[in-house]
């Protein structure tokens, strides 16, 4: 009982740093009480609400990155020629 | 020809998908030579496994799946020792200056500014991922881009869950800052 109360107190008195860490890590890695604690903190703390929006922007940009990488990087002509040669030789 | 065999030869795959495959590998491996090798190995493997293409996905998706395995092999091949030295360096940075010793934000956090130009945001993000320390980039890409579970990342790279969490969180803090900075530059330019 004492330890359950201690855990509850820890979740309810969470600081920004721990809340930010929990928001940015996979939910399935942490107990529900901690995630609720982070969510509770976020509702009350303006900076954490803004940090959450920064994180959401990062996530949505990451999703777009896989579809369109945003960089016009490609194989160099030398690398392309080397790979083409190895394909031709089948090695 | 079998009904589901890809119609293209490996040379055509190189022509049509080479750049995209290379970008996929480069983002994760962070090294031109290693990325080129991974693409070469993937195309050779694809050539041998032609019959494995079932036509259920696009050819690009099929090739990317093969490349993914080659990238994982390349990540695995980096010695554990090298990774641990790198990890120690990445996590030995002093406390994150964004937080006080007591764990509060040192500066108020602001909501993201006006909608960022998507193209510009992706460019800034690609660049920032490329600049992450190696161990941080590996873990971040596996977890966040490829959706590999923390347990699998630990197994694959010989790390503990705490290592993985620290690296992912630090990577995200760095990337958030890079995105915010690119937004600022975009705004002042308008
Ligand atoms: Zn807070």
Describe the protein's architecture and organization.
The complex is a heterodimer of chains A (91) and B (190). Chain A has five helices and no strands. With 91 residues, chain A is mostly helical. The longest helix of chain A has 22 residues, at 46-67. The N and C termini of chain A lie far apart (65 Å). The mean pLDDT of chain A is 87. Chain B has helices spanning 10-29, 32-48, 59-77, 80-91, 118-130, 134-145, 150-157, 161-188. Chain B is globular. At the A-B interface, helix 2, helix 4 and helix 5 of A face helix 1, helix 2, helix 5, helix 6 and helix 8 of B. The complex binds zinc ion.
Could you say how many structural domains of chain B there are in total?
A: 2
Task: Kindly report how far apart the N and C termini of chain B lie.
Answer: 56 Å
In angstroms, what separates the terminal alpha carbons of chain A?
65 Å
| Classification by helices and strands of chain A | mainly alpha
Report the CATH C-level class of the largest domain in chain B.
Mainly Alpha
> Could you estimate the helical fraction of the residues of chain A in percent?
over 70%
SSE topology string of chain A: HHHHH
* Spatial shape of chain B: globular
Quaternary assembly: heterodimer
- In total, the number of strands of chain A is 0
Shape of chain A: elongated
And the CATH topology of the largest domain in chain B?
A: Arc Repressor Mutant, subunit A
SSE arrangement of chain B, N to C: HHHHHHHH
Summary?
The complex is a heterodimer of chains A (91) and B (190). By secondary structure, chain A is mainly alpha-helical. Chain A is 75% helix and 0% strand.
Notable characteristics:
heterodimer; A: 91 residues; mainly alpha; 5 helices; B: 190 residues; Rna Polymerase Sigma Factor, Chain: A; Arc Repressor Mutant, subunit A; 8 helices; globular; disordered N terminus; disordered C terminus; binds zinc ion
């Amino acid at each position: 009982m004492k330890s359950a109360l201690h855990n509850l107190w820890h979740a309810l008195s969470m600081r920004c740093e721990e809340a930010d860490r929990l928001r940015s890590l996979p939910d399935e890695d942490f107990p529900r009480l901690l995630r609720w604690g982070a969510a509770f903190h976020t509702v009350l703390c303006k900076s954490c609400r803004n940090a959450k929006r920064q994180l959401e922007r990062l996530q949505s940009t990451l999703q777009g990155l896989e579809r369109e990488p945003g960089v016009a990087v490609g194989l160099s002509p030398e690398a392309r020629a080397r790979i083409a040669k190895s394909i031709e030789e089948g090695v | 020809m079998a009904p589901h065999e890809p119609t293209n030869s490996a040379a055509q795959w190189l022509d049509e998908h080479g750049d995209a495959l290379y970008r996929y590998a480069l983002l994760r491996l962070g090294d031109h030579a290693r990325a080129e090798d991974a693409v070469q190995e993937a195309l050779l493997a694809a050539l041998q496994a032609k019959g494995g293409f079932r036509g259920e996905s696009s050819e690009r998706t099929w090739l990317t799946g093969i490349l993914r395995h080659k990238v994982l092999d390349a990540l695995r091949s980096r010695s554990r020792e090298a990774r641990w030295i790198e990890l120690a360096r990445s996590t030995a940075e002093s406390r994150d200056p964004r937080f006080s010793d007591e764990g509060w934000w040192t500066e108020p956090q602001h909501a993201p500014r006006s909608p960022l130009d998507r193209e510009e945001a992706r460019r800034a993000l690609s660049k920032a991922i490329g600049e992450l320390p190696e161990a941080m980039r590996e873990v971040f890409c596996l977890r966040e881009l490829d959706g590999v579970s923390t347990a699998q990342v630990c197994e694959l790279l010989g790390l503990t869950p705490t290592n993985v969490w620290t690296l992912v969180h630090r990577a995200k803090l760095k990337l958030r800052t890079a995105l915010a900075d690119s937004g600022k530059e975009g705004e002042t330019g308008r």
